[in-house]
Amino acid sequence: MKKLVTLAALLLLSACSGQQTQATNQAAAPVNVQSLAGNHVVTDTIPAAEMATYPKKGSAISRNFAAQPPLIPHKADYSINRDRNSCMSCHSWDKAERMKATPVAKSHVIDAQGTLNGQNYFCTQCHVPQADNKTALVGNSYKM
Ligand code: HEC
Ligand code: HEC
């Protein structure tokens, strides 16, 4: 008998919750989401995006606010892995001058020899490349 009551209660509960979800579904307004690809149908052939081009070699991009990690004015697909940080082959304190690159900031090192702080190892965690031929995907009205 006890089992039967429990079963009946369970059935009633599931029936109720079922009705509830239906009611919520009916009330929900349609959501209009605009994808980044615009109004293209999935089967459309969309022309490939332009390849990124970067500012003339050797020029830094001006910063927009104090303490901004400067934008990378060149391609940034150099490998950064456990054994090797390719960015450091130009930006380390001992190589920067020869490579005509700015040495990593003082805030990135732990001694006078320019040993990189482990917390600054993954450069692209903070620095992003800035191509100059790309149209913005989203608007930006940021002001200082
Ligand atoms: C082949 C050498 C080379 C490599 C490798 C390289 N860079 Fe550069 N980088 C440069 C040069 C040259 C400049 C332009 C001069 C400057 O502003 O430092 C520059 C500029 C920058 C700047 C702008 C500095 C500023 O003051 O505005 C950042 C940030 C930067 N690089 C980050 C990186 C990161 C992150 C990597 C790895 C993904 C990397 N670089 C790999 C040569 C290199
Ligand atoms: C945790 C975020 C962070 C990481 C990781 C990081 N940076 Fe930076 N970087 C900054 C910020 C913020 C600045 C500007 C303020 C300053 O100079 O400390 C900066 C400044 C720089 C500058 C300009 C220095 C100058 O004197 O103008 C260079 C070059 C640079 N970083 C290269 C690198 C490279 C290469 C790596 C990887 C080895 C790296 N950064 C990792 C945040 C970061």
UniProtKB/TrEMBL annotation:
It is found in: Periplasm. Keywords: Electron transport, Heme, Iron, Metal-binding, Periplasm, Signal, Transport. This is Periplasmic nitrate reductase, electron transfer subunit. Electron transfer subunit of the periplasmic nitrate reductase complex NapAB. Its main location: periplasm. Belongs to the NapB family. It comes from Shewanella avicenniae. PANTHER family: PERIPLASMIC NITRATE REDUCTASE, ELECTRON TRANSFER SUBUNIT (PTHR38604:SF1). PROSITE patterns: PROKAR_LIPOPROTEIN. Component of the periplasmic nitrate reductase NapAB complex composed of NapA and NapB. Pfam families: NapB. The keyword Iron applies. Residues 1-23 form the signal peptide. The keyword Flavoprotein does not apply. InterPro entries: Multihaem_cyt_sf, NapB.
